[in-house]
Design goal:
Strand order of the largest sheet: 2-1-3-4-5
Number of domains: 2
CATH architecture of the largest domain: 3-Layer(aba) Sandwich
Structural class: alpha/beta
Order of helices and strands: HEHEHEHEHEHHHHHH
CATH superfamily of the largest domain: Response regulator
Radius of gyration: 27 Å
Strand content: 5-15%
Shape: elongated
Oligomer: single chain
CATH topology of the largest domain: Rossmann fold
Number of strands: 5
CATH class of the largest domain: Alpha Beta
Length: 236
Amino acid sequence: MNGQDVNAPRTPRPRKLATAGLAKLEQNRQAARIRVLIADDHVTVREGLVAMIGRQADMEVVGEAANGRMAVDLWQSTRPDVALLDLRMPDLDGVAAIGEIRQANAAARVIVLTTFDTDSDIANAIKAGARGYLLKDSQREDLLDCIRRVHAGETCIPPSVVAKLAAGISNEALTGRELDVLTLLARGKSNKEIGVNLYISETTVKSHLRSIFTKLNVLSRTEAISVASRRGLVKL
């Protein structure tokens, strides 16, 4: 037909076209990966996270930071899809780092991964713009699921963390003076010593303590210090 030999062998498709197709597939696969930035001042934690995330077919680590300032700088240069930030880091803590990152891009997706779970820690992180909040003893599957969910635009805060946050919000806030009294109480000061430090009478100190006990729903000085520490009101 048309002078062509129908029995002639077909010319194989150029190899370079097949190679180009494979390259395109690999490029698309790379583009589909969730690009993750990790910030933690403990090298063993970072190495563990890098190894775990690196084994996921849909994720890759694009940066590692040892402090908050480095985390912000790396975020600016790599623009990851999701950032995993520790809460307590040198140079710039997690909350401050989240604030700077979100100031640069309000849509930035940040997950706090920390050992701290006081009411104030959780509230400050969420207020700064964290989309997820997990403790470092969380299951591996929970962390990976959280990364995927936050990348998809969801929030990821475990029920236990939500309950703790709600409990802190529901409690009546202490006044500035009550916090002063509570801080000195946590340092082991007596009522008389607290009064001397704050230039108030012992009677006034006792009045503040009664109010503190009521607001914290406790019955003793020891219990007040314990609850205040757990809520992040004082540091022991």
